[in-house]
């Protein structure tokens, strides 16, 4: 995993502010609705908040001006001049953390011809950017086991390949944001609003209204509010009450998961409402949400742990069980768990698999990687099962214990008794010889035993060394 994204805070993008006035919006600032003239003022900027008029006509104008100026349009945000300083601060915060914008898919497009270009016969093409989720491979170490993004997509636009990673079919993608919400590692993000931007917005004190770009009112604009996870909402709620607005479009049918999250969080901490054209979830009395101040959170899995440590949030509490008949304590579930909710612990006499509900985020990766049981990733026939907790519990529990087997020669841990019995069973099913003397040794002394069994027990075993080691061949 790349440390560029995860170990240190990301470099902030320099954001500038451009004030625009026109006959529809008489105030101070640059006075012109000519996209070429506005573009001449924007040239050289990396990211800019335009304080002007937020309506369809002017949004189209500002985008054309940004494209003519060579600015990535996903690094341009518009604030209506009537919205005030807080709206300006929020939008600057989003752009400061807009490092994902340059990862967006590039699309060549032609611009409307100005009178001057028409006379000269000039045809100008520019590089537009598509605001649909992107997969950031450096932030995803789980694609060999995790299919959450693929499972969350109702449009079959995402495929996870254990070798190549995640691919997104943009001809099918509707930018609904469900994959963004589902990813525990923040490896899928919208180019226009990064996960880090959501984290940083939660530090701004005060109540927040959050909607999408189709909403013409004063609100924090996202591609779709369905991109918000329980972690995002809990963080945003920690600095004030939150009102979510959906103006209504074909994507509003994807809000069922968000509605459940809002309902559950309202039961726990209150102060959250969701308004859609169809219904309204009224906010309940707000309680204090305690979240330690943070300088940088790498991903939602890490943020989840911070929240659970200090708040009782039932919507993100899970319980785990194992099938004792087929579970072999192989340790794969603990190895792949992104939050260390599952751990293998050793003592002098035994080995145990433990589960910490305060760290579990319900990603089901443990089920995906489990080699025991059938191939259905959420089937009850797997050796491990994960379900939403019926009753909130913060107590760590042992799922399974077993005897530790140590190497008969050097004493190194070989594995649990159940895991070795499984190895023995598989080898016999494949017609391979497997006696206990060989099985209960570490890899080096298994090789020694096999060598001596073939050449005689008095034969001297000399492990072959690598070419860079002394005595190597």
Automatic annotation (TrEMBL):
Top-level taxon in the UniProt lineage: Archaea
A Pfam family of this chain: Fer4_7
Ranges of residues in domain 4Fe-4S ferredoxin-type: 131-163, 164-193, 318-347, 351-380
One annotated GO molecular function: metal ion binding
Matching InterPro entries: 4Fe4S_Fe-S-bd, 4Fe4S_Fe_S_CS, Fe-S_Ferredoxin
Protein keywords: 4Fe-4S, Electron transport, Iron, Iron-sulfur, Metal-binding, Repeat, Transport
Record flagged with keyword Repeat: yes
Segments forming a coiled coil: none
Listed name of the protein: Iron-sulfur protein
Organism the protein comes from: Acidianus ambivalens (Desulfurolobus ambivalens)
